[in-house]
Amino acid sequence: MTRAKKLRKSLSLPRFQPMENTPLAVVADYLNSLEVTVAKRLLEEMLVMYFLPRAQYKFGGCSQQQLTNSYLISRRMAESHFGIMALELGLEASVYSCVSVPLNQAPAPLNDTPGDSQKLSVETPSTVEQAETPHSSLIAGEESVDLMDQLFS
């Protein structure tokens, strides 16, 4: 059986040459200090996490539910990254707390009646439910089938 060859896309980014003593220079030094494969994986994950919902919105072809799921997965990934960062930095738990929304639970619609304050009711899952949540990576090879089915179903 022959395998279908996957086409590769090219991502052309400008060359970053930040001025010394700027925040971008510190980030460049950090990324340059990592192994190439680790830095590449981190950048891929950050790009997908931040830009996938925006790209899906811009280019269309996704239902509102798919966009919502993509956003929620991206948000969960960001919360995970910030939680790991807080642990790595040795920050106190009070500095960072995560309120996650399960993928199967979309936010309640906003109340659009004039004069009423807009309220968003979201139930947070128990710690048992959070422990059963699948890995939330959107990078190829690191995602679970169930997660991607939820994202693109």
Summarize the SSE layout with pairings:
Blueprint: H1 23-33, H2 36-59, H3 64-88, H4 127-131, H5 145-152
Helix pairs in contact: 2-3
In short:
With 153 residues, the chain is an all-alpha fold. 48% of the residues lie in helices and 0% in strands.
Alpha carbon gap, first and last residue: 28 Å
Topology as a string of helices (H) and strands (E): HHHHH
Beta-strand percent range: under 5%
Tertiary shape: extended
Rg calculated over all Cα atoms: 19 Å
Helix content: 40-55%
The counted number of beta strands is: 0
Please give the largest β-sheet: none
* Secondary structure tally, helices: 5
pLDDT averaged residue by residue: 74
Backbone structural class: mainly alpha
Q: Which spans have pLDDT < 50 for at least 5 consecutive residues?
A: 111-136
